[in-house]
Design goal:
Layout: H1 3-23, H2 29-37, H3 41-66, H4 75-90, H5 98-108, H6 113-150, H7 154-176, H8 178-188, H9 198-223, H10 226-244, H11 246-253, H12 261-275, H13 286-294, H14 302-329
Helix pairs in contact: 3-4, 3-6, 3-10, 3-11, 4-5, 4-14, 5-6, 6-7, 6-10, 6-12, 7-8, 7-12, 8-9, 11-14, 12-13, 13-14
């Protein structure tokens, strides 16, 4: 990691500590201690298993995609990728650092750059598609609740959905209407010329056209691997389910019963969408606020709500970042050859 990355990581950890301290300001610490003492650690271990499965399932998708490209790509390196992704997603705005970091990690393993980009692109397309599918279901179940609790912020949920859906629609348009999409994109970006110099405009235009061309070439390969994409889609659904169910088990661990499993998972799905819109790395601040507001009706105990939020944040954010730091120190295995697929 660069000095800049270490600085951001340190800043995010300090900011997280500050938010935790602020959350505890009106909380009886003795009650927090009592809640911890009576906590059902068996359910918390189930939660820990869920976040581990979330990361492992993503490693499984990597192995599926690499099977006919680099058969000797090891499980160690496959699991290493999502851990590194979690770290760099956690320290970059809008989680933009995960993809480049995974690419570097694959190059370190000796994977060809073109193949690595292809695998990461296909993984991204499937993941985004499954997020949209899960979100539509959750929106139907829990939007009335989130609208009641978050009011104006509920619009952010819709906005987030529109962004994720637009990404999928744009990718599908490139795959199936390449020429039309490319012409449309060059028309849409023309107003950029009003705000930047001509040379900069041409650079942006050339870069976007290059990306569209690259994705189209990769999409041709994707079309021939529908069976593999279906397998990855199933694994990705399981991966997201393992993530979305985490708050439910946290509440059980804190002896909060009578919670609707479907509602808890739906609300967590919506929180996931809200977090993706906050420019601060990890959605810090917005994540904690959203969780506290949406899950407040599940318990009358303020201390349990705050503790649930702290445990949730540790598992879903900090656990992945620290695991990613460890993964960076693990030396990757070198692949020997490619099948050339």
């Amino acid at each position: 990691m660069s000095r800049k990355n270490w600085l951001v990581l340190t800043t995010m950890l300090l900011l997280g500590i500050g938010i935790f301290a602020y959350s505890l300001r009106d909380t009886n610490l003795q009650q927090i201690s009592a809640d911890l003492a009576t906590m059902n650690w068996g359910w918390f271990l189930v939660d820990l298993l869920c976040i581990c499965l979330y990361l492992i399932f993503e490693g499984v998708t990597v192995k599926i995609f690499m099977a006919n490209r680099y058969p000797n790509f090891t499980w160690k390196d496959a699991i290493r990728l999502p851990l590194i992704e979690q770290l760099f997603n956690g320290i970059t705005p809008f989680s933009t650092g995960g993809q480049p970091a995974q690419l570097v990690a694959m190059l370190q393993s000796g994977v060809d750059g073109g193949i690595a980009s292809s695998v990461l692109l296909m993984k991204f397309v499937v993941f985004q598609s499954m997020i949209v599918v899960n979100f539509v279901i959750s929106l139907l179940i829990g939007f009335h609740y989130i609208e009641e609790k978050l009011h104006v912020l509920a619009l952010l949920v819709i906005f987030g959905f529109v962004i994720h859906l637009s990404v999928i629609v744009a990718l599908l348009m490139v795959m199936y209407w390449y020429n039309f999409t490319k012409r449309l994109m060059n028309i849409v970006i023309k107003p950029v010329r009003w705000f930047v110099k001509e040379q900069r405009y041409q650079e942006i235009k050339d870069s976007l056209n290059e990306k569209v061309d690259s994705f189209y070439q990769e999409s041709i390969k994707m079309k021939s691997e529908y069976g593999k994409l279906v397998k990855v889609a199933v694994v990705t659904i399981l991966q997201l389910m393992a993530y979305y169910i985490i708050p439910y088990f946290i509440l059980l661990a804190l002896n909060v019963h009578g919670v609707s499993l479907i509602m808890a998972m739906s609300l967590h799905t919506l929180i996931f969408m809200i977090i993706s819109l906050f420019p601060i790395p990890g959605g810090t601040g917005g994540a904690e606020y959203s969780f506290a507001v949406l899950f407040t009706s599940f318990t009358t105990s303020h201390s349990k709500l705050v503790l649930a939020m702290l445990l949730w944040r540790i598992l879903t954010y900090y656990f992945g970042m620290f695991a990613g730091m460890f993964a960076l120190m693990v030396k990757p295995d070198k692949v020997k050859n490619s099948m050339g697929v």
